[in-house]
């Protein structure tokens, strides 16, 4: 498995070595409405187009050890950064297994490839969030009891 992981990391390194250029957004005070419309209309780009790696090529978390997950995540985050997208993890001490599972799911859906985009994994609805147990914003908005009750109702 280590050899395969290294091949994936090489693919992400190739994507990282081919960054997208920063878009010229113009005068924000003049073009803000136009810019927001463009952002809303953008389609996602497949992971194959962006990184030359598909969802199916990424091993499920159960087949990886912690070190392999960490290496893959670093390669993925670096490649995303080169494509203009940053990643923000909601919470402290989130296990790498959870982060990997969630970023791997994005390989199914595709990515917004535009400078300045941030993946924060936050939908705003804590009961469905895989990061809720680690997120300070969730703890500020939900008691543990209310969160569990809402999860059971869904």
Describe it.
This protein is mainly α and 154 residues long. The protein has two domains: 2-121, no CATH class; 124-154, no CATH class. The chain contains seven helices and two strands. It has helices at residues 2-16, 28-41, 47-51, 66-82, 96-109, 136-141, 144-153, and strands at 85-87, 117-119. The protein has a two-stranded parallel sheet. Helix 5 (96-109) links the parallel strand 1 (85-87) and strand 2 (117-119). The chain is globular, with a radius of gyration of 18 Å.
Number of helices: 7
Number of domains: 2
Roughly how much helix do the residues carry, as a percent range?
40-55%
Largest sheet: spatial strand order: 1-2
Gross geometry = globular
Q: List the secondary-structure elements in sequence, H or E.
A: HHHHEHEHH
- DSSP strand content: under 5%
Spans of at least 5 consecutive residues with low confidence: none
On the 0 to 100 scale, the average pLDDT is 88
Give me the Rg, rounded. 18 Å
How do the helices and strands line up, and which of them pair or pack?
Layout: H1 2-16, H2 28-41, H3 47-51, H4 66-82, E1 85-87, H5 96-109, E2 117-119, H6 136-141, H7 144-153
Parallel strand pairs: 1-2
Helix pairs in contact: 1-4, 4-5
């Amino acid at each position: 498995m280590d050899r395969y992981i290294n091949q994936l990391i090489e693919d992400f390194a190739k994507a990282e070595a081919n960054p997208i250029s920063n878009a010229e957004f113009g005068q924000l005070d003049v073009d803000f409405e136009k810019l927001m419309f463009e952002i809303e209309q953008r389609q996602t780009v497949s992971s194959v187009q962006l990184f030359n790696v598909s969802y199916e090529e990424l091993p499920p978390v159960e087949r990886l050890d912690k070190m392999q997950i960490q290496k893959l995540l670093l390669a993925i985050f670096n490649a995303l950064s080169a494509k203009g997208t940053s990643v923000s993890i909601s919470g402290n001490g989130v296990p790498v297994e959870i982060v990997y599972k969630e970023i791997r799911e994005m390989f199914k859906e595709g990515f917004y490839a535009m400078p300045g985009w941030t993946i924060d994994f936050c939908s705003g609805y804590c009961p469905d969030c895989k990061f809720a147990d680690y997120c300070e914003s969730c703890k500020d908005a939900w008691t543990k009891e209310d969160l569990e009750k809402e999860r059971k109702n869904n």
